[in-house]
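Forwarding these from the shared drive since the link keeps breaking.
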Amino acid sequence: MNAVTQTESTDFSLIDDLGDAPNESTAAAEHDDMLSPRFYTTDFAAFNDIDVSLVKDEWDEMMSEFEADANAKHFRRDAGYDREVNVANYDPALYDELLHFFISSLTSEFSGCILYADIKKNIQNEDVHKLMGYMSRDEARHAGFINKALKDFDRDVDMGYLKKAKDYTFFKPKFIHYATYLSEKIGYARYITIFRQLEKHPENKFHPIFDWFKDWCNDEFRHGEAFALIIRADPKLTQGRNKLWIKFFQLAVFATMYVRDHTRPEMNKAFGFDPTDYDYRVFDITLECCKQCFPVLLDINNPAFRSGLETLRKINVRNTAARKRGGIIGHLTQWGGKLQGVATFAKLYFLPTIKNPLPKKVRLKPIW
C-alpha cells in the first residue's frame, strides 16, 4: 500500500465543511468540537497587572532555566529519525489515529504559541512579558516539529491560515491560569508516561517521534511551573469560590482526556497500553503536580468517579455513531446524548474532593 492510497483512507467525515482551508489537515485543525483543542484570547490588561513578588525567588530561578534554553537544539530530525519513518506500511487504522493525534497535538501546541505571543505583544509587565516570549518560543518549536512529522504522511497544517481562520474563545485570566496549568502538566504526564512505557518495551516504538518525548515533556513541565507560580502569587486564586473553578477545570480536562484517548484503540494497542490504565497513570502524576497550587483535588479512586468517566465515554461512542448516521433519529440521539453528558458531568462535579494544604515552596522537579 503506498502513502497516497493510505492518505486517501483517512476519515475526515465528521468535519462538516472544509470551507476555504487549503487542505484536509488544516481543516481538521480548524474544526471545533467538544474534544478538539481551541484557540484562546484573554484580558491583556489583567495579565499586565500580575505581580509575582510573593514568589519572586522561585520565579527568578525558573526564568534562568527558560533563558538557558536546554532544548534549543532538541527539535531537529536526525538521520536515525528519517531511517525509521515508513508510515506507508502502517495498518490503516493506526495510520489514521496517528495522523489525527499529530494534527490535534499540533493544534494544541500552536494554540499555546499564539496565546503566549498575543499576551507578550499586549503587555508591558517585564516579568510576564519575558515569560510569554519564552513559552511562545517553545510552543512554536513543538508545533513546527509535529508539522514536519506530518509531511511523512504527505500532509501538513497551514499554521498561517489556521491562526487567522480558527475561532477564538475568550477566557478570563484566572481561567487561562487554571486551564493552561492543567494542560501543560497533563501534557508532561502524558509524554513521560509514553516515554517510560517505550523504555521498557522498545519493540512498541512504532514512530521515532516518541524518542523526543523525554526532553520535550520538560518544556511542558516548566510551562506548568510558570502558571503554578502565577496562581500562587495571588492568594485569591486559591480561595473562596475559586476553589469551585479549580474543581471544574480539573474535571473538564480529565474527562476530555479520558473520552478522547478511548477513541484511539490502535495507538493504545501499539504502545501496549490499556487506555483506562494509561489515563489513570497520567491522572496520578498530574494530581501529584497539582498539589503545588490547587487546594482541592479530584478523588480519582472514587468508584463513582471512574463509573462517571466511563459513562461519558459510552455517550461519546453513541453520539459519534449518531453523527455519522445523520437524519432525524441521529440528531435526536445526539441531543439525548448531550443531555445525558451534562447530567453525568454534574454528578461527577458534586462528588467529594480531597483537601490539599498548599506547600510553602511551590516549584517541583520533573522526577517521573
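-- next protein --
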Amino acid sequence: MQITAIRPYAVWIGMRNQLIVKVETDAGIFGWGESGLSGREKAVIGALEHYAEFLIGRDPMRIGALWQEMYRSQYFEGGRVLTAAISALDIALHDIKGKALGVPVYQLLGGKQRDTVPTFATTAAEPGPEMIAQAKMLMQAGWTAIRLSPSGHRSGDIYEPREHIAATARWCAQARADLGETVVLGLDYHHRLSVAEAASFCQKMPRGTLDFLEEPIRDETPQAYEALRRLTDIPFAIGEEFASKWQFMPFIERDIHQFNRIDVCNVGGLTEAMKIAGWSEAHYVDMMPHNPLGPICTAATVHFAAAVANFSWLETRASPAEATPGFDDSAFFPVQPKLQGARYPVPDTPGLGIEVDENLVRQQSFRFWEAPHLRRRDGSATNW
C-alpha cells in the first residue's frame, strides 16, 4: 500500500476554520486528520505541501518512521507550524492503519483501558450568579468536573487583569460554597497573567477553592512557573500549546504541573502524545487533553484517552452550557463522537470511527480570522 495523495481542507464550519486533512492510498483506504494551529491554517497548508513531496509513494503503515522523517529531515526541526502539520498526517495515518487492519485506533495504541471517556465542561457565563446557575445545570446533567471562566475575558479590545482578579476570586469562592466539596472546579486564565498577578489571584481565595488552575501565565519560561508554584499550592493544568515532548520535558521532570493539557492536533499527533503520556505516568501527571477543534480532533483524542492509564478528563465544547444554538455539524461529519451524558463512548469501528462528507466540505470556503489583539489601557499589547 502506498500514499497517493494528501488533501488539506481549511474550511469555515460553525464559528471557526477547521483544517482537516485527507490522506489517500492506492488500496482505496483513506484516513482523516486535523491540525490545531487555529488562525494560522495557511502556514500549516504550506508545510503539508512540502511534506507531500516525499510522502507520496511511501508506505502509510510505517507511522513511526514517517514521523521521524518528517520531524528530522530539515535543518529547522520542530516548531508549532511543522508539528501541527505532522499531527494531522499522523492522525490520518492511524486512521488508515486501523481501517487496513480492521481495528479501532486505540488497539494500535496498546488497547482499551476504559469503555467511556469522562469529560469536563465549561461555563460560558462570566463570574456571577449565571455562572453558578450554569454549573448547577451541568452537575444535574452528570458532570463532576467543571471549568469556570474568569471575569473580563469577553473583551475584544481592552484587558486589564488587576481590574478582574478580585471579582473572579470572589465568585470562585462563592461557586465552591454553592456547588459543594465533591465537584471538581477549575479555572482557565488563558495565559493572560504575570506571575505576580496569578499569585495575587490565588492568594485571594480560601485554600481548596479550585482543584486546578489552567494556563495562568505563558509557558515560554519554565522557571516562571516554578516561581508561581512557590507562591500557590493550586494544581496547574498546562500544555495545550506545547508542540513536542521536548516542550513538556522541563515541566514533567521538575514536577511543576499536575495535569497535561495535551493537544493531539498540535503536539505531533498520536505518536508523540503516547510518548508524553508514558513519561507523564512516571511522574504522576494526568492527561487532561485540550479539545476545542472539530470532530476529528475529538475522535482522535477519545482513542488516545481510551488507551492511556493516567487520564483525568477530556475537554468538551458540546455541553449544554457551551453548545452554539442552531449549530449542527453532522452534515459535514455524519459519523462522529457524541456525548452520552458527560462521557464519550469509545467506538469499536475500524480506524477513528468518523466519516466526512467531502463533497460538502469542498463547497465551504476559508475565512481569514484573527484572535482579538488585546491592549492595556495605556495602549500596550497584552496576551489574548
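The chain has two domains: 3-103, 107-350. The chain has a mean pLDDT of 96.

- D.
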